[in-house]
Prior knowledge:
The complex is a heterodimer. Chain A is of the alpha+beta class.
Amino acid sequence: MERLPSWIRQHLAALRALLALTLLTGALYPLVITGIAQGLFNGHANGSIVQKDGKDAGSALVGQLFTDANGQPVRKYFQSRPSAAGAGYDPMSTGASNLGPEDIVDTLPVSGAKDDKGNPDTGRQSLLTRVCARSKAVGALEGVSGARPYCTPDGVGAVLKVFPAVGTPTRAVSVNQACPAAPFVAVYQGVKVECGKPGEDYAAGRTVAVRGTGTAVVPADAVTASGSGLDPDISVAYADLQAGRVARERGLAADQVRALIERNTTGRGLGFMGEPAVNVLQLNLALDRLRR
Amino acid sequence: MSSTGAGILFIGSLIVALAVTHRPLGDYMYRVYTGTRHLAVERVLYRLVGVHPEAEQRWSAYARAVLAFSAVSVLFLYAFQRLQDKLFLSLGFPAVPDHVAWNTAVSFVTNTNWQAYSGESTMGHLVQMAGLAVQNFMSAAVGMSVAVALVRGFARRNTEDLGNFWVDLIRGTVRILLPIAFVGAIVLVAGGLIQNFAEPHTVTTLTGGQQAITGGPVASQEIIKELGNNGGGFYNANSSHPFENATNWTNWIEVFAILMLPFALPRTFGRMVGDRRQGYAIAAIMGILALTSIVVLTGLEIAHHGTVPQAVGAAMEGKEVRFGVPNSGTFGAATTLTSTGAVNSFHDSYTALGGMITMVNMMLGEVAPGGVGAGLYGMLVLAVITVFVAGLMVGRTPEYLGKKIGSREIKLASLYFLTTPVLVLIGTALAMGSPTERASMLNTGPHGLSEVLYAFTSASNNNGSAFAGLTVNTPWYDTVLGLCMAFGRFLPIVFVLGLAGSLARQAPVPASAGTLPTHRPQFVGMVVGVTVILVALTFLPALALGPLAEGIR
């Protein structure tokens, strides 16, 4: 041992330190914590599992999709927020959309075109168009206006590409509205607005987002994906918006549904932490229990 | 109460809590690093490692020990990941691919915790618990050790001795990190975090779909991830995942855990150099920069400028309902002001200028308050540069805490400061110069550049958060970002320890009428100014092409 060069001895000491500390912080510590957690907070430690008819139906902390096999909302259930986790609320693929605040120009699908793998070209929806489309869909489901600023009536981003990029416009294209759609404005600064031709490159134009006069009824959380993709909650405003539909579908009095919303709302922690939030799974479970 | 009012209270309550813990925790850490007594468990550890706890090391020996420990840690963690399929609790996952394993090993050992992988689909419970989470403790303890060695350089005189790395490492782990993590983990489980060893458990949802409920020893890893300023999430969604951050108040605990140690260390510094006012001055510099950043970032997210946030009516993309916009912004600022890099909301979807603030926070060198230990030594280097600048103005040899800042000291301080900008700017330029690497961008235009700039800023400054749209699990990004993390961590550590060695050798010069007092508001203002100006001069061109181009119109 003593005859080893000092740099080797140093690394052996480092290895012994690492192994000893791994035992302490990587085995003993988590195991003791697990023991205490399982003993004191068994439900929490195992994922806050909730049951329906005696079978595990999910976690109170993890949001779910309340859609049918075709992806359509099941009308008797409160709907969760949009999700970017896998195909939606997939705990094996958590995460956000990661799309930026100025992601507003779509790539329109070219009909007949195929990608590298031979799948039909689906184009790419910008974040703005996703927001507009969700707003329109939620508005239709709840029977309210789905209009929003920067959105066209047909539910895409109200964005023009204006040519030339600098100077007096000679051409304007509503790039997110595929032909033969009628552009959301007929004329921009004296120039007739064209619809967007799939496959045409409009990158050289100046991007002009048009705010329009629409004001949003559909709440912000209903049109945005969460960070985790598993957000278990919706805002009180979004729950209230859905209350009428759920009450009608289930033949309940509106007050009864409102009372359940209130019971499944968590207020701000100590009055100032976070935002009031309605747990969608718990609320829907409460509704299902009510029926029997 | 309005959302903004609640957000202000959230920030205010954190300030109060940090002010309350600053003194007792800082004093406690002072006793940990200066005490002569050894705990029984520590004696056992010293015997296992084979070191004499009383033996002191000169700076070069201290640095060699840090590097040896880190090198062994990287190799061990790499091998652990490559062999995970042969070990138990692997959840059936295959061995981690070589470039991802290299990147992740370097990432966790350097306190970066950049994640080129998704936890839930890559790492088994054993690797997470006994591999990754161990480095959460170790890299934080190493950071504190190096900081303490630098402070000893200021506090000691006429000596080569800077303490013993193994003693500092083990004491930091056993007496500081473990006890706080222990209590914190239990509190987090009480809030709803999970702590088990289960495999994913498939349930049938209310509408008849299938959903896999994941398991894992999450709470024990979550708390040290925040406390040690690591940031590597158990899951891909990191601290936005309900199992990592279950409620609006676990969110508060996690932000507090991020800031607690870095804001207490200036007190430890003040005690060690025998002048508490010096510690208050350093804490004030950190506080001014941090509070400004937190308020500006939270304010920008609340104001939600930009086309999509305006269309939505709030900057809610990538944010959770239970946290809301203000507390998400505050978390985002805290995680980038320190070397944490955990996220409870996704920075790629922040408003353009809000996203820029997270980048600027890291570009400050993560000194306000910075990583555990790394923030303190970074700030002390900036203080050295400030007295040098002040000395140039009046034509005097600069001194700090009675130690002359001569040519060797200022060279080491300058090299320290130059390391990360070189890595960030050259790395970004290389990536943007190659069509293959550019293709990794999810967003286009200025926001795409922001994604790449963010990646290199985060890796080189050992933060670990991301504009996560960028596809980084490619061999090129894994390798290059791994190198940025390694150089960004260990070059500065060697410079800092070299600086500590040359400071410890000096006899202090008595203060005279010409000495710049370094405990007054004047000095506080100067360091803040120097920090901001240095960062602005270095990074403004790159920021102008990215987030500024996107956010100002």
